[in-house]
Write a structure and sequence with these properties.
The structure holds 2 protein chains of 2 kinds. Chain A has 2 domains: 205 residues, Metalloenzyme, LuxS/M16 peptidase-like (Cytochrome Bc1 Complex, Chain A, domain 1, 2-Layer Sandwich), CATH 3.30.830; 200 residues, Cytochrome Bc1 Complex, Chain A, domain 1, CATH 3.30.830. Chain A is built from 16 helices and 14 strands. The radius of gyration of chain A is 25 Å and the shape is globular. Chain B is an alpha+beta fold. Chain B folds into 2 domains: 206 residues, Metalloenzyme, LuxS/M16 peptidase-like (Cytochrome Bc1 Complex, Chain A, domain 1, 2-Layer Sandwich); 198 residues, Metalloenzyme, LuxS/M16 peptidase-like (Cytochrome Bc1 Complex, Chain A, domain 1). Chain B has 15 helices and 13 strands. In chain B, helix 9 packs across helix 12. Classes of the chains: A alpha+beta, B alpha+beta. At the A-B interface, strand 1, strand 2, strand 5, helix 2 and strand 7 of A face strand 1, strand 2, helix 2, helix 3 and helix 4 of B.
């Protein structure tokens, strides 16, 4: 039986017995619920693997993760897409299984193997029903340690990725993202997406893949995380035993491990325009170099971003969507990475209001830096949203394992989550305005527009200089 | 094993209240379904149910400004969605803010209209038109699904139009339409409320009664029926779009939600196109390398469903080549069947997905949403076990029957979406559609 269910009869309820609520006032808020993040047991296994067992009760499911500290920022120059292609070839055959056998084995345990390549990390993950834990572990180790990298598979998967890149050229949103990324980072390791570039993918061969795999997938570099199930102790024992005996080569070079890309050069503000014939909307990106996760005053930046565009009821969304109806939605974000990630405001607007929308976005960025600083009320709501809503982030085993993984990836202390609420609560208005002044330099804003050719002229009047053609 | 115990009562005004306790995390989900979707609209006013959903976030009589702020401030997250059959709304809040969430939901269920102004309607109409542009008009292959619906369900069938609506209809919506729609569909007797999470059932039901029991019931809903037949014959359609690669959509009329063969077709879709060991992936991407992706779906709704197979061609290959291989694979299943191992693998994936979804008490597809789906469509919130039993009883033989019955070459709607300069990649003799 998969589900146990019963319909209970409420003992105290009587039909028609109720007290109509007072509608004159919204029920007040109470003190936020204290959060106890699940305990994490850490150990270094005999082969050097760092292992974290997260004690989160989740009957039914277990989640296993291998964190590798090499992502798309580790791609050597000229081989953009190498980390991504390596990860995507893991399920195309390994020593023990052909592609087909591997996927049949995954199907037999109802497992889905995911591989996410971020700028700073590659994350292999499998979530399965508890009863399939041992098979899932075996498969995870197989794919991570012994991919075949057959020439035929390389050619086939590379071709698929090249097709994907070609297809993305027809998506206004994808073009805007690519041009923005390139515009902010140029040739910096954060300047390309994990899928890579056409020339990078074409340059990769079996030797480059094998070398990348040998350097960055060597078990001595792994951090393994496990959580879920109904018996945390057993989970921890089984995983430690299996993972601890995976043979490893000595970790020779830790390049890409613990190395943070140096800051890219800041560039002066400018506007890049990509014409898209017949587009009914303009995709807009406005932003600049943002922050690293280790920035001083991280909490103040989070709060400032919430007020600016990090939630539905934010200055940007209220202005562009709820007041003017220019867009289905607009948001801002700081992607805090090991190095300085991007700050970006992104939206898609009715093409006829492209210039007006950009004017409003830049106006809101300027305003929050001092002309109209964050108010007491705005700060209260943002703090309340973050602190009271904090426990929502730790419901499922997947959420909890990712939270623990972030501690590992960024080298944060174990009490990071326990101290989150007081750290957010003590930020004051001045700190938020200072954060805006420090991290939103309006002279360095890059604006990207992907829209119909006829909007180009209206962009000249924004005071952002002549719209430049986007470099490819 | 999942434990989905629940309590259900129906208030005097007809509102179903269902409570499920889960004390794993100090949060609670509130989920409200209204049994109204785009199939309740009429031609000329399409897109209205969805536009109305937007207006539900613009404040109600006792809180006239935006719906988000009081819940955001409480640490909540919230959203809503509309499809052909139903409209749902949910919030997930810390357990201490349950009363606030119920206050907000009940106020908009009972008192939306006094807060509604022409300005709010005009603003959300613009927002929705932008949603349509962003999600469909300005996106590669964006017109595919609405074109398939229109072809499968000739007007005035209530599934003929897309939920987002036609732009001229959205523009025509008036305050009067809003008032009528609200009175007819937005009341306790056409709604179902689920509270799930870190709560005590008795307390939650009492709290729900205090907030909702005084709201007036409206007219009982008339079930919508198919007002015209589905397309029965073969249709080949073509759209020229701003895309890089041609894509083929093969589709057939299929079972309704929980109807005969619905579960078989879910598993059949996985056997055909779920993952790299699936039949079509192997054949199209692995052995022949003539496609770049393949997927298959059984999309079942209250009145009926559509089974579809979607394949994007690899550069240099036509949709006729793709079509030949897909049809060949379909014939192979129809003549040789599928193996028990294939059925087992697909069912195992389904089981893991099911348990995965039930991890969250809130949000789209979480336990609260699922309890409401079962309650609204089967009147049994605890349909979980029965639902799962449908998949357990599928055999290779019943899949074969479903294949033969559904994937019928004489009832096929095929849509080719091709680049503007590559019309020859489409299936031959396709009728050219204006994308709209």
């Amino acid at each position: 039986m998969l589900v146990r269910q019963r319909c209970q009869i409420p003992s105290s309820w009587r039909r028609g017995n109720f007290v109509t609520v007072d509608r004159s006032v919204i029920p007040p808020l109470r003190d936020p619920t204290a959060l106890s993040f699940p305990s994490i047991e850490r150990e270094t296994l005999p082969n050097g693997v760092r292992f974290c067992a997260i004690n989160h009760d989740q009957p039914g499911l277990v989640n296993l993760v291998v964190l590798l500290r090499a992502g798309s920022a580790t791609d050597p120059s000229g081989y953009e897409g190498l980390a991504g292609l390596t990860a995507s070839l893991l399920d195309e055959g390994c020593t023990k299984y052909s592609t087909l056998e591997l996927h049949e084995a995954l199907g037999n345990i109802g497992g889905r193997l995911s591989r996410d390549v971020f700028t700073d990390a590659t994350v292999l993950s499998i979530t399965v029903l508890e009863r399939h834990l041992v098979e899932a572990l075996d498969l995870l180790v197989e794919v991570a340690t012994s991919p075949r990298f057959d020439d035929d598979a390389i050619r086939r998967v590379r071709t698929l990725r090249l097709s994907r890149i070609a297809q993305l050229r027809h998506s206004g949103a994808a073009v805007a993202d690519r041009v923005f990324r390139r515009g902010v980072y140029s040739s910096h390791p954060y300047g390309h997406a994990s899928i890579g570039t056409e020339s990078g993918l074409t340059a990769i061969d079996q030797d480059t893949l094998r070398a990348f795999h040998a350097a960055h997938y060597v078990p001595g570099c792994w951090t393994v995380l496990a959580g879920g199930g109904s018996d945390a102790l057993r989970l921890s024992e089984v995983v430690a035993e299996k993972i601890g005996v995976v043979p490893t080569e000595p970790v020779v070079s830790r390049s890409g491990v613990d190395t943070v890309p140096s800051d890219p050069k800041s560039l002066p503000g400018r506007l890049l325009f990509v014409p898209r014939e017949g587009a009914v909307q303009s995709e807009i990106r406005v932003g600049a170099l943002g922050i690293s996760r280790h920035v001083d005053g991280y909490e103040a930046v989070r709060l400032m971003d919430m007020v600016l565009g990090g939630q539905f009821e934010s200055r940007l969304n209220l202005n562009l969507r709820e007041e003017k109806g220019y867009t289905y939605g607009v948001r801002s974000s700081f992607d805090a990475r090991c190095g300085r990630g991007p700050f970006v405001v992104q939206t898609a607007v009715d093409a006829s209001v492209t210039a007006e929308a950009i004017k409003e976005i830049i106006g809101e960025i300027r305003d929050i830096r001092g002309r109209r600083p964050v108010t007491d009320d705005e700060l209260d709501v943002a703090q309340s949203a973050l602190t009271r809503g904090f426990s929502r982030n730790f419901e499922t085993v997947g959420q909890v394992v990712v939270a623990a993984m972030r501690l590992e990836l960024f080298g944060l202390p174990d009490d990071e989550y326990a101290t989150f609420i007081p750290r957010i609560t003590k930020v004051d208005k001045n700190a938020v305005t200072t954060a805006a002044q420090r991290h939103l330099d309006t002279d360095e804003l890059l604006t990207v527009v992907v829209g119909p050719p006829e909007v180009r002229d209206s962009l000249c009047e924004l005071g952002l200089g002549e719209p430049l053609n986007a470099p490819d | 094993m999942l434990d989905i115990a629940y309590t259900k009562v129906t208030l005097d005004n007809g509102l179903d209240v269902i409570v499920h306790e889960n004390h794993g995390c100090p949060i609670v989900a509130v989920n409200v379904w209204y049994h109204v979707g785009s199939k309740n609209e009429r031609p000329g006013r399409t897109g209205f149910a969805h536009l109305f959903e937007h207006l539900m976030f613009e404040g109600s009589e006792h809180h006239q400004s935006g719906y988000f702020r009081p819940l955001q401030e409480a640490g909540g997250t919230l959203n809503g969605s509309t499809n052909m059959d139903r409209t749902n709304y949910w919030e997930v809040v810390p357990r201490d803010a349950l009363d606030r969430a119920l206050w907000m939901e009940s106020d908009r269920m009972g008192y939306l209209l006094p807060a509604l102004t022409q300005d709010k309607l005009d603003n959300q109409r613009d927002v929705v038109l932008n949603e349509r542009r962003q999600t469909y008009e300005n996106r590669p292959y964006g017109f595919a699904w609405m074109s398939l619906l229109a072809a499968h369900y000739p007007s005035p069938h209530p599934y003929h139009w897309p939920t987002i609506g036609f732009p001229e209809d959205v523009r025509a919506a008036s305050l009067n339409d809003v008032h009528e729609f609200f009175s007819r569909y937005y009341h306790p007797a056409n709604a179902s409320l689920v509270i799930a999470g870190d709560v005590n059932s008795n307390e939650a039901i009492a709290l729900a009664s205090d907030h909702f029991a005084s709201l007036k019931p409206g007219p009982a809903g008339e079930p919508v029926s198919a007002s015209s037949d589905r397309t029965a014959g073969i249709k080949h359609l073509q759209i020229n779009d701003r895309v890089e690669l041609p894509r083929l959509y093969l589709s057939w009329p299929s079972s309704s939600l929980f109807g005969e063969h619905d579960a078989e077709l879910d598993l059949a879709a996985d056997i055909l196109a779920g993952g790299k060991s699936s039949r079509l992936y192997r054949s199209l991407l692995y052995d022949r390398e003539i496609a770049t992706d393949v997927s298959a779906y059984q999309s079942s709704n209250e009145l009926s469903g559509i089974f579809s197979i979607v394949v994007t061609a690899a550069p240099g290959h036509t949709l006729s080549e793709i079509n030949t291989v897909v049809i060949e694979e379909i014939h192979r299943v129809q003549s040789d069947g599928v193996t028990e191992e294939e059925v087992t693998r697909s069912r195992n994936r389904m089981e893991a997905d099911f348990v995965w979804q039930c991890q969250s008490v809130g949000g789209f597809g979480g336990v609260s949403d699922q309890l409401n789906a079962y309650n609204v469509f089967t009147e049994t919130p605890g349909f979980f076990e029965k639902d799962w039993n449908r998949y357990k009883s599928v055999t290779s033989r019943s899949i074969c029957e479903a294949f033969s019955r559904t994937l019928n070459p004489d009832a096929e709607v095929a849509l080719s979406i091709v680049p503007h300069n590559a019309g020859e990649a489409a299936l031959p003799d396709s009728e050219l559609l204006e994308a709209r």
